[in-house]
Amino acid sequence: MHRLNQIIRDPVTLPARQDIIRQGDDPENVHLILEGIACRFKMMPDGGRSIMALLIPGDFCDLDVAILPVMDHSIGTLTACVMVDIPRKQIKELLEHHSRIARTLRWATLVDEAVLREWLVSMGQRRADKQMAHLFCELFTRFQAVGLAEPFLLPLTQEQLADTLGITPVHAQRVLASLRSRNMIALEGRAITIIDLDRLMAFAEFNPDYLHLPPPVDDSEDV
Amino acid sequence: MHRLNQIIRDPVTLPARQDIIRQGDDPENVHLILEGIACRFKMMPDGGRSIMALLIPGDFCDLDVAILPVMDHSIGTLTACVMVDIPRKQIKELLEHHSRIARTLRWATLVDEAVLREWLVSMGQRRADKQMAHLFCELFTRFQAVGLAEPFLLPLTQEQLADTLGITPVHAQRVLASLRSRNMIALEGRAITIIDLDRLMAFAEFNPDYLHLPPPVDDSEDV
DNA sequence: CGGGCCTTTGACGCACTTCAATCTAAGTGG
DNA sequence: CCACTTAGATTGAAGTGCGTCAAAGGCCCG
User: Which spans of this chain does the record mark as coiled coil (chains A, B) (predicted)?
Assistant: First the structure.
């Protein structure tokens, strides 16, 4: 990833709730998140918003634009974010002439897709409480994978959560309260935090295989 | 695509409702569909099935295995299918040394992802009737793109449809009857057929942009 | 003719929505 | 420092889409 490091410069700070790319755009840059939480979303004709992915530090927002010229969805920040822009041409060049990096980027795309599949399952088959629990487990695992799980705080509003789960804010509130009353999560100020991961994972029947993470290193042997 | 043509040999015919690849497998071949309809799916702990993608002629079933060694979902036929196997190593080789083909395969993956996003929107925001109408519009458009839309017949059972839409077979039946009573679709034997595409598309608020198809050729000029 | 899949239909219950009101915390300006 | 504002969280009551359970009706094929 040496070559990628050369590209990362000029980090930009964006406020919460700001659009980065809009549906229909043909953006010049690919964006990489360094801090904060962003999302992919679409607006519905009735004004509702559907969030189809949460993007956390280490995620590329829009690798697709190197291949698909027009965005079929929008991307925006949920919390304040720090990001870097990478010229789309540079990504194209990497894809075509550096097969190892191309392979890594392809891996990232495929994991995105696997997450989408699991969200689709969640949306179709799990009731809102298990769906929300499952989301929290996934986010914890993904934050853990980039070393940001301690402490794990989710500073999302209930409306943002609701748009992600495909439910109403009112119901998000009730489900959240239910998970809290069962001592799986708690509120730290306005952020959600997990206080009993084991119980949450059991409740959500969470299996992280779909994230295709490298197996955790067992460092108990080489101290 | 000359190079791909060399690879296509030994088409295999599979009966309906047969697994092609199971979750957890580490398959040796990538599969390309020539005829029939297959699907990606996951089984739930309670025995329910969630269908996360419909695969039609021209679709690769499992391009991912060239990069992600373990399948996080299963693939099976819904109707009888004709498919060809392509050794995974061959795909890997194409990805690494033939950037134009690699680009085409990457395009295919990104469109898969765009479809998944739209399904997620459908599942979260659209009621079952509009969701089903939207699915029919998508399938018609995809079949049309590979020249198989005339006549357009969907030989899926209501249970298969229900697993795709995340609803129960009973409700699928009612929704189907409702679309029929509104003269948008009809049954041709046991297959579903569209009798009023315009009305169906308007009802579903269908916009095909997410399929990233090349714009239809206007051949009225060069006769 | 019979058996097995699908499809179709009905009654009832629950998860989630809708509408609406209240409450709280964090500004903002005087 | 305190009115005033405003976004978000919380709570209640009533309505609806969809699920569940159960039974009956078509269609294909042996």
Answer: none
For residue B12, count other CB atoms closer than 10 A to its CB: 12
Cβ proximity of A36 and A79 under 8 Å: yes
CB pairs under 8 A between A and B: 126
CATH number at residue A51: 2.60.120.10
Q: Does any CB of chain A come closer than 8 Å to the CB of residue B209?
A: yes
Q: B180 and B136 in one domain? A: yes
Of B64, B110, B124, Cβ closest to residue A64:
B110
Determine the pLDDT at residue B223. Answer: 42
For residue A215, pLDDT beyond 90:
no
Cβ-defined contact of A42 to B119 (cutoff 8 Å): no
Predicted local confidence at residue A223, as pLDDT:
42
The answer to whether residue A97 neighbours chain B at the CB level (below 8 Å) is yes
Residue A210 has pLDDT above 80, yes or no: yes
Q: Do A64 and B113 touch (CB under 8 A)?
A: yes
CB-based burial, B76-104: b 16+ in 10 Å, e otherwise: bbbbebebbbbebebbbebbeeebebbbe
- CB contact at 8 A, B58 and B146: yes
CB contact under 8 A, A205 and B113: no
Tell me: do B86 and B166 sit in the same domain. no
